[in-house]
Amino acid sequence: MLFWNHIYSQFDPVAFKIAAFAVHWYGIMYMLALLGALYTAKWYVKRENVGFSNQILESYFIWIEIGIVLGARIGYILFYDPHVDYYLSNPWQMFNPFMDGTFVGIRGMSYHGAIVGFFLGTWLFNLKYKINVWKLLDVVAISVPVGYIFGRIGNFLNQELIGRPTEVVWGIYVEGVLRHPSQLYEAVLEGLVVFIVLYLYRNYKKYDGELIALYGFLYSVGRFIAEFYREPDFQIGFVYGEWMTKGQALSLLMAFAGLLLYFFILKQGKKG
């Protein structure tokens, strides 16, 4: 386990450089996350004969990706960044990839902000194309967890969102401190486990929309558990006592919203 424990000291987050631009492993994994989600959606639609064309799926993924990036960045500024007043006064700086003339990329994304952007993008897409939006969202529920696996591995390779100090033998040294590889816990809990549960449940759903509602609940439960092993955001710390993080608080709200949506869909389906 010695090599694994010290993997960060032997691994470069930069995959390669093109002139002055550094291409990080995180960026590569982010692209794999998008492609993984898209091709899982195509595979699922074809396998289950859902009825959406590849053109619709590809167009939809472009719309929601724009919404996700905008929502994730703005959400991070509003929920986590201590310089929110500066960014609100200079909103163009939210997406400035340069710092002191050096290209550093855009850092700081909020998952819960991404959810808001995702639903906004979905709403606008539905206004334009007039589709069965609940059926499409169920496709998203199956495909997004696959992409999330790659995304969390990207966090791990980028040496960010580090875990809390630990003594477990599979811990990773970060600046001399042995920590949980919490990003990988999240890849499993929020990605792999959610995908397996939803994929198995698909044969039991009665109404369109059940899967996306359950996704919201299952993701939130996985995130809530994983946060016990993840170091709280340094600029925020704990928001309730000495145990609840901002991510856990937002996950509780999202889990509650997912359950409400699930029972609402069941109730409306029975009425129909």
TrEMBL record:
Residue stretches spanning the membrane: 18-39, 60-79, 109-126, 133-151, 183-200, 212-229, 249-266
Gene Ontology process terms (BP): lipoprotein biosynthetic process
Domain of life: Bacteria
InterPro entries for this protein: Lgt
Keyword entries, A-Z: Cell inner membrane, Cell membrane, Lipoprotein, Membrane, Transferase, Transmembrane, Transmembrane helix
Location within or outside the cell: Cell inner membrane
Membrane topology: Multi-pass membrane protein
Primary location recorded for the protein, binned into one broad class: membrane
GO molecular function: phosphatidylglycerol-prolipoprotein diacylglyceryl transferase activity
Keyword Cell inner membrane carried by entry: yes
Protein name: Phosphatidylglycerol--prolipoprotein diacylglyceryl transferase
Signal peptide (residue range): none
Source organism of the structure: Sulfurospirillum barnesii (strain ATCC 700032 / DSM 10660 / SES-3)
Protein purpose: Catalyzes the transfer of the diacylglyceryl group from phosphatidylglycerol to the sulfhydryl group of the N-terminal cysteine of a prolipoprotein, the first step in the formation of mature lipoproteins.
Family: Belongs to the Lgt family.
Lineage of source species: Bacteria, Pseudomonadati, Campylobacterota, Epsilonproteobacteria, Campylobacterales
EC number(s) reported in the record: 2.5.1.145
Chain residues that bind a 1,2-diacyl-sn-glycero-3-phospho-(1'-sn-glycerol): R152
GO cellular component, one term: plasma membrane
Pathway(s) this gene product operates in, as recorded in its UniProt entry: Protein modification; lipoprotein biosynthesis (diacylglyceryl transfer)
